[in-house]
Design brief:
Helices cover about 75% and strands about 0% of the residues. It is built from 9 helices and no strands. Its main location: Golgi. InterPro entries: Vps54, Vps54_C. Belongs to the VPS54 family. It is found in: Golgi apparatus, trans-Golgi network.
């Protein structure tokens, strides 16, 4: 599935590419318009999600991982459409105009790539903060593990509240990112899993060793 804002975007770009083919004299003007449309879409997407403008304009209470994933999907789609649009326009442009516009297309491609990277970094940061919050209460949780039925709600042989929280957060995130392209999902989720793997190992390694209940929880 795609975000609905891509429908009018694609239609506008398609119309301009069609005009440039049908009336080659308009190719340069159409190319400028196409670049402007890409720039505006990228800027609006950035301001609404990374800039949290949607909280004011659309009444959202917060920007969730799902919103970030939708923005990432949209920017990815747009960035992959850009080379095709440039190729179509270049066929109609005079060499001089093609050389003038080529740097603008390259600059736009870099902007889209940077936007994608910022969204990915934001997703990673959200999950880092959640892991830090869980690790912050891990010490107090660990003190209950030797009690059999601990204050964290875990019985003997059952996962601790900490383990349940970590698994739930990762599962929720993977669901939110499930509609991304496979390579994007692997890259984002893989980086987050590496952070969780090292963070959890470090947190458990800093705990004061306990008895059998403690060992069952950390193995």
């Amino acid at each position: 599935r795609l975000v609905t804002s891509l429908v009018p975007f694609v239609q506008a770009v398609s119309d301009l590419l069609s005009y440039s083919c049908q009336v080659p004299q308009l190719a340069t003007e159409c190319a400028h318009r196409v670049i402007e449309i890409f720039k505006v879409y990228n800027a609006l997407c950035c301001s609404l999600i990374l800039g949290a403008g949607a909280m004011e304009n659309a009444g959202l209470k917060s920007i969730s991982a799902k919103h970030l994933a939708s923005a990432h999907q949209a920017v990815t789609f747009v960035s992959r459409l850009l080379p095709a649009a440039e190729l179509s326009l270049s066929r109609e442009l005079l060499p001089l105009h093609r050389n003038i516009l080529s740097p603008q297309f390259k600059s736009l491609a870099r902007d889209l790539g940077e936007h994608r990277n910022k969204i990915e970094q934001k997703l990673v940061k959200i999950m880092q903060d959640r892991l830090s919050a869980n690790l912050g209460v891990l010490v107090s949780m660990a003190k209950t593990w030797d009690a059999g039925e601990g204050g964290d709600g875990s019985g003997e042989g059952s996962p601790s509240q900490f383990a349940r929280a970590v698994v739930k957060q990762l599962t929720t995130l993977k669901t939110a990112l499930s509609f991304l392209l496979e390579e994007d999902l692997d890259a984002i989720f893989g980086e987050i899993c590496r952070i969780y793997d090292s963070g959890v190992a470090r947190g458990l390694g800093q705990l004061e060793r306990g008895g059998d209940g403690w060992r069952r929880q950390v193995r």
